[in-house]
């Protein structure tokens, strides 16, 4: 058993470090258990020294550690918050000081918004950390970006937990996190589409507008947006393919035909989806189209692939039809066993006799 000196000896050593080397004092307090000395006496001595050196971080950390060891967690928390020490999050987790989050929300957000949000979300069912309470506090501070971070984290963790704020999140994503707006819209089914569309219009979020217009049942307006605002022929073709509407292909050709670059894109990509004559016949005369020769060759090749696929499908259908017809013919020509409980399907009466095999030719053998 290791010999233990009197508390006064340990306090003397700590006091020496306090006067001459605060860093060593900090390390020593971390290493020594408070059972060796009187921690309150050391706190009092540290307080005296802090009057001379009020910004000495090592002394403040020592004081926080000692308060924590004494179970005075709020005092330790206060010191960490005042000094902006990241250790405050470990203290909150370790000592379960989650209730203190709301009262110190802005300070914690500034110190580490991701850590704060994670703690809030992890304990969202505990008073006073319910979603409504946290949103109210963040709203009152007028720090909308922090509100967005919280609601975004909440949505990633539990999409249903903040459902009443989804409409508001459209504006928040459009303002602070544009890349996440479209995935958010795709995931939510409870957002008023017209209001979401208005927000996207205000922020010129055309890709999101395309998605919303398509969901609202207005694919032609969505397609027009792709062509006129996004100016992306590949996306326009992809959109028409997804919708699978012949009228939409006609609209795509009509909207693109005056743009030679778009015409080239169509020639290169639509051969397997539409009759190429639809496109070729609408190209105005004397239109200069880049790489027209190569594009026409590809168009015809793609169309031939489409023709070959259809012919292959036709042959398969004919073969399957023939096979099924033979199977039906054999089944119709096979015998049916008749017993005393059999009802005639023609007249509805019970068949007389048992142990009879009847064929479609009306022959019978008993």
UniProtKB/TrEMBL annotation:
One of its GO terms (biological process) is endosomal vesicle fusion. CHCR repeats lie at residues 122-265. SUPFAM superfamilies: ARM repeat (SSF48371). PROSITE patterns: CHCR. InterPro entries: ARM-type_fold (IPR016024), Clathrin_H-chain/VPS_repeat (IPR000547), TPR-like_helical_dom_sf (IPR011990), Vps41/Vps8 (IPR045111). Pfam families: TPR_Vps41. Keywords: Protein transport, Transport. It comes from the Eukaryota. One of its GO terms (cellular component) is HOPS complex. PANTHER family: VACUOLAR PROTEIN SORTING VPS41 (PTHR12616), VACUOLAR PROTEIN SORTING-ASSOCIATED PROTEIN 41 HOMOLOG (PTHR12616:SF1). This is Vacuolar protein sorting-associated protein 41 homolog. It comes from Geodia barretti. The lineage of its organism: Eukaryota, Metazoa, Porifera, Demospongiae, Heteroscleromorpha.
């Amino acid at each position: 058993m290791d010999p233990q000196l009197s508390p006064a000896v340990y306090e003397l050593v700590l006091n020496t470090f306090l006067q001459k080397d605060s860093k060593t004092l900090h390390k020593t307090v971390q290493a020594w258990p408070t059972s060796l000395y009187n921690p309150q006496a050391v706190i009092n001595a540290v307080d005296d020294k802090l009057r001379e050196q009020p910004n000495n971080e090592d002394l403040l950390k020592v004081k926080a550690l000692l308060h924590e060891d004494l179970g005075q967690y709020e005092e330790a928390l206060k010191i960490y918050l005042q000094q902006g020490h990241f250790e405050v999050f470990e203290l909150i987790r370790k000592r379960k000081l989650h209730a203190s989050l709301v009262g110190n929300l802005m300070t914690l957000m500034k110190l580490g918004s991701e850590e704060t949000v994670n703690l809030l979300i992890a304990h969202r069912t505990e008073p006073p950390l319910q979603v409504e309470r946290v949103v109210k506090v963040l709203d009152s501070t007028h720090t909308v970006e922090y509100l967005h971070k919280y609601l975004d984290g909440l949505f990633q963790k539990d999409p249903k937990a903040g459902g009443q704020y989804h409409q508001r999140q459209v504006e928040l994503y459009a303002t602070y996190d544009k890349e996440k707006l479209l995935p958010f819209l795709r995931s939510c089914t409870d957002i008023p589409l017209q209001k979401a569309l208005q927000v996207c219009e205000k922020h010129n979020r055309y890709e999101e507008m395309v998605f919303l217009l398509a969901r609202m049942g207005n694919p032609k307006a969505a397609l027009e947006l792709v062509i006129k605002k996004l100016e992306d022929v590949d996306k326009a073709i992809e959109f028409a393919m997804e919708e699978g509407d012949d009228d939409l292909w006609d609209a795509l050709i009509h909207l693109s035909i005056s743009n030679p670059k778009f015409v080239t894109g169509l020639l290169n990509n639509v051969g397997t989806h539409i009759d190429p004559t639809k496109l070729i016949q609408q190209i105005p005369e004397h239109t200069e189209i880049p790489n027209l020769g190569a594009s026409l060759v590809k168009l015809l090749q793609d169309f031939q692939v489409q023709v070959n696929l259809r012919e292959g499908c036709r042959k398969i259908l004919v073969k399957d039809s023939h096979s099924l017809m033979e199977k039906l013919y054999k089944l119709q020509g096979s015998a049916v066993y008749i017993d005393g409980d059999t009802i005639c399907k023609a007249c509805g009466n019970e068949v007389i006799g048992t142990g009879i095999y009847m064929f479609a030719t009306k022959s019978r053998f008993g």
